[in-house]
# Entry
Amino acid sequence: MALLEVENLQVHFRTLDGVTRAVDGVSFHVNEGETLAVVGESGCGKSVTAMSILRLVPEPPGRIAGSIRFQGRELLTLSDREMRGIRGNDISMVFQEPMTSLNPVLTVGRQIRETLRLHQGLDNKAATARAVEMLALVGIPDPRQCVRQFPHQLSGGMRQRVMIAIALACNPKLLVADEPTTALDVTIQAQVLGLMQELKRRVGAAIVLITHDLGVVAEVAERVMVMYAGHKVEEAPVAELFRAPLHPYTQGLLGAVPKLGSSLTGAQTRLAEIPGQVPDLKLRIEGCVFAGRCALATDLCRAIAPALEAKAQRHFAACHFAPRAAAAA
Amino acid sequence: MLAYVVRRVVATIPVMGVVALFVFSLLYIAPGDPAAVIAGEQASPADVEHIRQSLGLDRPFLVRFGDWAWQILHGDLGTSIFTNLPVTTMIEQRFEPTLSLMLITLVFAIAVAIPIGVLAAWKAGTWIDRLIMGFAVLGFSVPVFVIGYVLAYVFALELEWLPVQGYTPLAQGLWPWFKNLILPAIALGSVYIALIARITRATMLEVLQQDYIRTARAKGIGQGGILFLHALKNASVPIVTVIGIGIALLIGGAVVTESVFAIPGLGRLTVDAILRRDYPLIQGLVLLFSFVYVLVNLAIDIAYTFLDPRIRY
Amino acid sequence: MSAPIVTVPPGIAVAPEMPDLWSAVKPPRGVIGFLRRHPTVAVGGMLLLLMVLMAVLAPYLGTVDPTALAPARRTRAPSANFWFGTDMLGRDIYSRVVYGARVSLTVGFAVAALASMTGLAIGLFSGFVRWADAILQRVMDGLMSIPPILLAVALMALTRGSVGSVVAAITIPEIPRVSRLVRSVVLSLRDQPYVDAAVVAGTRTPTIILRHILPNTLAPITVQATYICASAMIVEAILSFIGAGTPPTIPSWGNIMAEGRALWQVKPFIVFFPAAFLSVTVLAVNLLGDGLRDALDPRLAKAL
# Structure
C-alpha cells in the first residue's frame, strides 16, 4: 500500500465569473521515502493539488471530490480536528514565498515551538531546545540567536530554511513542497535542494515536489508526473521521462529547455515553443485537453478524451497516439 | 528604540504649538468684532469696550499670544468671564465625571468591538457578518443623543432598570457610580464601537489572506489560534491607530451625552460656555481636550513598537 | 466549433467523465447586475433620492407653514390632522420635519462639496510644492488634533448663527483629512514612471495635474465626500441640539429635536420623528458611501 493514494481528485472553484475546474480527475500515488515531482506550467493545477492533500483549499469557493488516502486513511472525510492533527505532524508543507510565509510579528523560535507544543506536547523549554536543534539541522549559522529573531531580520534563503525546519520539526512522513526554490537565487536554490535531499535521507520522509523547473526534477526526484490544465497527462520514472517522453506536451516542455552548446552543433538554434495558450478552465473541455495546441491532434482527439494508460513499464500517458508519438520523437 | 520615542515626543511639540495658535486666534478668524460678539446683542458700546480691554484685544497679536502661551505653560488657563473663577478650578470641579464616562466607554467599546470585528471577519459573507456590519452602520448613522434618548426611554423610563440621569461620584460607592454610567457609556460608545469593529473586520480580512496564515493552517493550528494568536497581532497596528483617532469622537460625543443624561462634567461645561460665550473657558477647554488627544495618540505611536517588531525606527 | 460525433474505434481508452461540482453561475451584467452585486449602492441611493425629492417637493406634500404658531393646539399627539403631532408652540411637526430636510441636506451636501474642493486644492498644492508641504502638514496636523465637534462648536460660538456659518464651522475640521488623502495620492503618483515620462516630454505641471493626477483622486474623494456628508448632517444636528447650530427660526432636524428635549419623557414623538428621518438619511448616505467604495475600487477599502 502506498503512503499516499490520490484517486480522481477534483477541485472546482466558484467565482463571480464562473466555475473554474482547477483540478479535474487527477490520480497518483506516493510510496514511502520516495520523491514524486509534479511538473506543469502556471495554472495547470499543481499547487491546488498540493494544497488539497492537506485540505488547505478554502471550501467555499472551492469544492473537493474524489479520494485522498494517507496510510490507508481517507483524508477527505476526516473532521477538522482530526485533519489538524495530521497537518504539520504526519504531513507537512513548505510554500513558495519565503518572504511572506512567516508571521512577521512572531519570533522564529515561537513559530517552530508552536508545532512542537501542539503535536508533541513539549513544554517551552524542551520545545525551544528542539527548535535550536532543527535550526542547526537546516544549516542556520547561529541557531540560538536565530530563535529569538524576527523573520524580517533574515534573508530569503534563511527564511526558507526556517520554513523547512518548521515542516520537519515533528518528523512527518510526507513533505509537500510547493515550488520551494522558485523564489530564491540560483546558488541558494542549489543549497536548499541539497538540504532537502540530505534531510530526506536522514528523516526518511517522502516528498511531493511541485515545480515547473525540469532541472530540479532531474536532480531531486525519482518519479515525475506532468500536469496540464487540471489533468494529469503523463507519469514515469525520471530517467525514463527524460529519455522517452510519450505525451506531446511533455515533449514540448523538454524541447523548450535550452541545451548548453546546442547552437554550436547546429542541432537547435531556436527554442521550440508550444504554440497556443492554456485553455480557459472555466469551460468544460471536450476531448483531449491538449488538443488545441497539439501538432498531432485529430478529430478523434477533439471528440474523445484519452484515458491515462500504461504505455510502457511504469510509464503512463494520456494520448491516443502515445506509442506512435514515442516513435516520432 | 529610545531614539524613536524621543523623536515622537519632540514631534508633538510643534503640533501643540499649532493647536495653541489656532485656539488662540479663533477670535480673530471669526467674522465681526469679537468683543461685540462676546458682549452679546444687548451690550452697550461701553460694555463692548470694557470686554475688549479686559481681554486685551487692543494689543498686538503676537504680544497677546506670547502672554497667553506663557500663562498656559504655567498652568493658568485664564479666568471665566461668567463665573470669575479660574478656568483651571472649574475644570477640576467637573473633570471626574467626564473622565469616568470616557474610561468606561473606552474599555467597553474595545471589549465589544474587537471580538465582534474578528467574528465578522471570520464569518465574512454570512448573515452573522451582515448583521454585525449592519449594526455598525446603524451606529454611525444614528446620532449619539438619539441613541441616548432611546436607551433612556427603554431601560430607564419603561423598564426602570437603570437611573434616567445624573452622576454619582466614585467616592459614594462603586456600583452606584457604575450604574449611572452604563447607559451613557453605551450611547457614547455606539459610534466608537462601529468604527473599531469596521476597521477590525477590514484589517483582519486582509491579514487572513496573507501567506503566513496559510502556513499556520498547514501547521495544524486551530481557528482560535489563527484568529487571535496569528492574525490579530498583525492587524493590531491599524486597529490601534483608529482607536486613537476615535478618541476625538469620544470627546465630541461626551459633550452631547452629558447633556442627555445630565452628567455634570466637562462636556456640560463646554455647552454652557458656548451658550454664554464665555470665551476664556472655551479656549481652556478646547486646549485641554486637544492636549489630551495629542497625548493619547503619542502613547499609541509608542505602543506600535510593542505590537509590530518592524516598527523600531 | 463543435467536434463531429465520432464512434469510438476499438482499442481506444476513453477518459472517465468528471462530474460538475458546482452548478453553473451566470453573472448578471449591466446596470442591474451592478446594483445586484452592490446592493448598498442601490438601497442607499434610493433612500437618499427619496429624501431629496421630499425636501424639494416639500410644499406639495400636504404640508402647512412650518413656522406657523398656534399655541392653542400645542403638543398634540400624532393624529389624522397632524400626522406627526404638534410641538410646544403648536407648530405642525410633519411640516417642520419635511421642510427640515432642506436644511439638513443642504448642510450635508454643502459641507461635502466645500470640504472636498478645498481639501483637493490644498492637497494638490501640498503634494507638489515642497516648501509649502512642510508648513501645511504641520497646520493640518494641528487642526486634526482638535476634536472636530469642539472645533465646530468653538467656531460657532464666535459667529451669529446662520446656515452659512454652520456650514463653515463644520467644513473647516473636515478639510485636513481630505487634504491628507489627496496629498498621499499625489505623493504616490508623483514618482510613477508615467509621470516622469510626462515631465521629460515637457508637459507643464498644470497639465500633468489635470490629466494624470486628478483622475486618480476622484474615486477616493468621492467616497470620502459621502462620508463627510453623513458626518456633517449629524454634526449639524448635534450643534443645533446644544444650541450652537442653525437659528431656531429655521426648522432643521437638529433644531426640532433640541426644542423637543425638555418634553422627551412625556411627549417623545417630538424628538422621535426628526430623529428617525435624520437617521434614515444618514444611513442612506453611509450605505451609498460603502457601496461606492466597494464598487469603485476594492483596494480603497483599506485606505478608508
Remarks:
- Chain C touches chain B through 44 residues (CB under 8 Å).
- The two ends of chain C are 48 Å apart (CA to CA).
- Confidence is low (pLDDT under 50) at residues 300-304 of chain C.
- Residues 205-241 of chain C form the longest helix (37 residues).
